């Protein structure tokens, strides 16, 4: 009788851990982006900047659901003497399986040089509809030849559950 009860308990615990259908993992993306920049220059490093652009990113783990994603971000910031602490925006990650995941982010940094901050998953489509998680992001500005555009190397590192 004890063996039957123990078997039932193990069976129930095993079933409940798989029944919720949740998956979790880490995101470790790297990639390059190009951003259309609108700026109002007040002089002496004081700017209001908005941007909209795309990035192509690869996850360090090739089997990640975030590997080989296309990312669109729309955001903005204001600078004082070339520094900013108020960057905000939203990004959409278009995954290879046809679904999308959205994040919101905040950041700080130096205009035309770099930035870093945090992000939080806000929702997704399909099986990622209830995605949750957060992480950090960074950007390094690269030299660009086209006026009104910025080129960057970006990273996103964090954890998620859906």
Concise structural overview:
The protein has 162 residues and is mainly β.
Describe this structure in words.
The chain is mainly beta. It has one domain: AOC barrel-like (Beta Barrel), CATH 2.40.350.10. The chain is built from 1 helix and 8 strands; from the N terminus they run αββββββββ. The protein has one helix spanning 2-19; strands at residues 24-43, 46-59, 69-79, 83-94, 100-110, 114-124, 132-142, 149-161. An 8-stranded antiparallel beta barrel has the order 1-2-3-4-5-6-7-8. The radius of gyration is 21 Å and the shape is elongated. The two termini are 39 Å apart. Residues 4-20 have low confidence and may be disordered.
What is the name of the CATH topology?
A: AOC barrel-like
Radius of gyration: 21 Å
Total domains? 1
- Can you tell me the residue ranges where pLDDT is under 50 for at least 5 consecutive residues? 4-20
Which labels suit this protein?
162 residues, mainly beta, AOC barrel-like, eight-stranded antiparallel β-barrel, 8 strands, 64% strand, elongated
Walk me through the topology.
Layout: H1 2-19, E1 24-43, E2 46-59, E3 69-79, E4 83-94, E5 100-110, E6 114-124, E7 132-142, E8 149-161
Antiparallel strand pairs: 1-2, 1-8, 2-3, 3-4, 4-5, 5-6, 6-7, 7-8
């Amino acid at each position: 009788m004890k063996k039957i009860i123990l078997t039932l308990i193990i069976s129930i615990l095993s079933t409940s851990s798989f029944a919720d259908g949740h998956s979790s993992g880490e995101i470790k993306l790297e990639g390059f982006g190009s951003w259309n920049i609108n700026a109002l220059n007040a002089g002496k490093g004081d700017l209001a900047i908005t941007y909209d652009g795309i990035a192509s990113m690869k996850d360090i783990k090739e089997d990640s659901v975030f590997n080989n994603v296309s990312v669109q971000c729309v955001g903005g910031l204001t600078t004082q003497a070339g520094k900013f602490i108020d960057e905000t925006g939203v990004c959409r990650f278009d995954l290879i399986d046809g679904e999308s995941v959205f994040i919101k982010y905040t950041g700080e940094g130096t205009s035309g040089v770099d930035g870093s901050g945090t992000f939080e998953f806000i929702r997704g489509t399909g099986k990622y509809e209830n995605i949750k998680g957060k992480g950090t992001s960074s950007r390094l500005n690269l030299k660009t030849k086209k006026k009104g555009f910025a080129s960057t190397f970006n990273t996103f590192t964090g954890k998620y559950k859906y």
